[in-house]
From TrEMBL:
Its cofactor is K(+); NH4(+). It comes from Pseudomonas cavernae. GO terms for molecular function: ATP binding; metal ion binding; pantothenate kinase activity. This is Type III pantothenate kinase. Belongs to the type III pantothenate kinase family. The gene is coaX. Keywords: ATP-binding, Coenzyme A biosynthesis, Cytoplasm, Kinase, Metal-binding, Nucleotide-binding, Potassium, Transferase.
Length: 249
């Protein structure tokens, strides 16, 4: 079996695949190495042969995690490293090593799925967009706060904005003007997200007309899906890129 890990700033997204056919065995999201251990130990017949990960955490934190996996499962974990070019895709950053590895893998996975120009939108704590030409040239992208960051900033810096996550979820049942603070904040953040996404779509159309594919990934992808009816929603897009960057042969 193959263990794949996407180590973000707050959470670890994981999945286990069969080696031979690549079929999914199990998947989940955890907040710590200990929670990951508990989740993996709960998989009947788990027998890890390979492990690979992408991490935006510090080198020390990543090394601690790989050592933890080695001690508990006797498996060596391969990590993704920055690259100027890989599998027909050219990194567009002036300093290629400074492009976030999660973005790099997402655009790598998207290009190999589309086989043509693509716009990659990752909607999580932060929101990122990346443009890749039909020739595999990464043209750059944008980064802005996602809904969680916008919400938390308003809660932190505005004394009278106080509500819980359940109220926030309920408020997003509509995009009519809010008649309470929670509705006004949540719907306002959602509309800002939609506005950003629409701008990215227009820019991609300036580049390529209609000859491109849009990919959506990240926890808030479904908030904008109706704005982009032709988009492919792929929660595991980073894992697709991870398999390209760290093949087991």
């Amino acid at each position: 079996m193959i263990l794949e890990l996407d180590c973000g700033n707050s959470f670890i997204k994981w999945r286990v695949l069969h080696v031979l056919d690549g079929n999914l065995v199990a998947a989940g999201v955890v907040g710590s190495a200990e929670q990951l251990l508990a989740a993996l130990n709960g998989i009947p017949g788990l027998a890890l042969k390979y492990s690979r990960l992408v991490s935006v955490r510090s080198d020390d934190e990543t090394a601690q995690l790989t050592s933890f996996l080695a001690a508990n499962f006797r498996v060596e974990t391969r990590s993704v490293h920055p690259a100027a070019q890989l599998a027909g895709v050219r990194n567009g950053y002036y300093e290629y090593e400074r492009l976030g590895l999660d973005r790099w893998l997402a655009l790598l996975g998207a290009y190999h799925q589309a086989k043509r120009a693509c716009l990659v939108l990752d909607l999580g704590t932060a929101v990122t967009s990346d443009f890749v030409s039909a020739a595999g040239d990464h043209l750059g992208g944008f980064i802005c706060p996602g809904v969680p960051l916008m919400r938390n900033q308003l809660r932190t810096h505005t004394r009278r904005i106080r509500y819980d996550d359940a109220a926030a979820e309920q408020a997003l049942g509509s995009l009519l003007p809010g008649r309470s603070t929670v509705e006004a904040v949540e719907r306002g953040c959602s509309l800002m997200l939609r506005g950003f996404v629409q701008t990215q779509l227009e820019l991609a159309q300036e580049y390529w007309g209609e000859d491109f594919q849009v990919f959506l990934t990240g926890g808030d992808a479904l908030l904008v899906k109706e704005v982009l009816p032709g988009a492919r929603v792929m929660p595991d897009l980073i894992f697709i890129g991870l398999a390209i960057a760290c093949p087991f042969t």
